[in-house]
């Protein structure tokens, strides 16, 4: 903070702008940016001259001449990487758990998401695919650690305070002690039961007096958290009727009550009811109901016993989350966001506090007040004052222009959370020393010195993948089916998968000359499926409707990537380059045998030749 009344906020590509205290109507530790008018004024301050400075600041060749304060936390990350001091940037709580290769991939992914140019950011499918690869690498690493520890030699090595795996491990130790897998912070509270009625499209309209009862008159003791919308209270309702109940009886719910001062809150409330009321996905918070009486606006959600990701990443009190759990949480968040995007909805500012955690640390996206339907002409009607999202998470192009928020802006926010998850540092923290305030700048500067950005709390903790197997990570609707259970709230729409690709085959027909072949079940890997579908959609831009990309994103199964190709599997032709890419990738993960060009029918669909 520059003075008592002036704060320094870094916007756009982290160019510092001076604002007075009046410009920041809400005092919040995460520095939410003020009203739209303020933001517009802020943008005006970025003169052409400053824009030029900004461009030169982004030019790596000029980085050395920058005022250190302009770079913030990301600068710190960049510096550390350049110095070859990777350890510094990694949360020490997870250091011992991460393989160097995994760390590199993860940071590379974050960097790509945080690219200043939206067109260079990856697609959601690519992000999913990269995260799956990171998990596969990590799992291999965990297995190697475990088998090492199972051998006599390994057990002996474990007796010594040094590592036998120095080269590969970021920390280089063999510490397998189980770290926090995420215990319920409030174990005495009951969770929303699995058979809870589906939120969509029927939402309960609560009476204000009922919510008053459910939250003991909005008792300060029951505040779960505070956002710019207002306070979030813990409440109790009866399981079947959702009528108010005594504390500890029935089921716990989270009740968000709009602040009277919140200017745009009513619009956000409406957006939340409109969007969230119609979304059902395992990685998206369930809205159970709402209340609107006179000036009161409230929302009632399923209760998430472990609150939000930020509570663990930045808290000195909470037990640190293991690297495996963090990865699983990020995968869940990415799946949730993919679902949003596949419904043409952008979240307009994902941040770690929007990733809520259930008792098993499954991630669910919350905070939908800023959501907007892409391409909707009326979409801007409920744009809130928080249109920029929280400082530090906003995509540069959006901050510059303030218009046309799209999926790529969301991906920027996601990149920031990826970085936070590995460093254990906030995207923007005014308390940090000079040069470390902005995470993105810090991380970019650290360059190859990845260890430095890792959350120090990751250091020395055991390798832990949350007990999930490599084939099914638990983020997709298909998982309950794979596990032999069926969750009626999120039925797997397996049947949808095949039509998606079969529909596309006719359009592939004229392009069969140089095509490779990939088994359709491989294509149905969630990330891979959409990646290919997106590629099809681009290639067939004259007829993009041929591919229902929306259905590919979330309604596909994820089992196939580890299976070997079987006789009679349906295969589908794809462009030679894509085939090469996929085959290479899968071979790299030891998950596929060579593919064959023979046996295609006229639509490019065929069977594997032995
Ligand atoms: N369903 C829930 N269950 C448990 N805790 C919750 C729930 N929803 C929100 N919280 C807690 O309340 C806090 C405030 O949530 P809220 O969504 O209002 O704001 P935010 O996302 O933190 O910030 P902002 O409003 O600035 O975007 C969260 O960070 C989380 O810790």
Automatic annotation (TrEMBL):
Keywords: ATP-binding, Cell membrane, Kinase, Membrane, Nucleotide-binding, Transferase
Enzyme class: transferase
Residues involved in ATP binding: 256
Subcellular localization, as worded in the UniProt entry: Cell membrane
Residues of the Protein kinase domain: 218-512
Record's keyword annotation contains Kinase: yes
Cellular component terms per the entry's GO annotation: plasma membrane
EC number of the protein: 2.7.11.1
Pfam families: PK_Tyr_Ser-Thr (PF07714)
Entries under InterPro entries matching the protein: Kinase-like_dom_sf (IPR011009), Plant_Ser_Thr_Prot_Kinase (IPR050823), Prot_kinase_dom (IPR000719), Protein_kinase_ATP_BS (IPR017441), Ser-Thr/Tyr_kinase_cat_dom (IPR001245)
GO molecular function per UniProt: ATP binding; protein serine/threonine kinase activity
PANTHER family registered for this protein in UniProt: OS01G0588500 PROTEIN-RELATED
Protein name according to UniProt: non-specific serine/threonine protein kinase
Provenance organism: Mikania micrantha
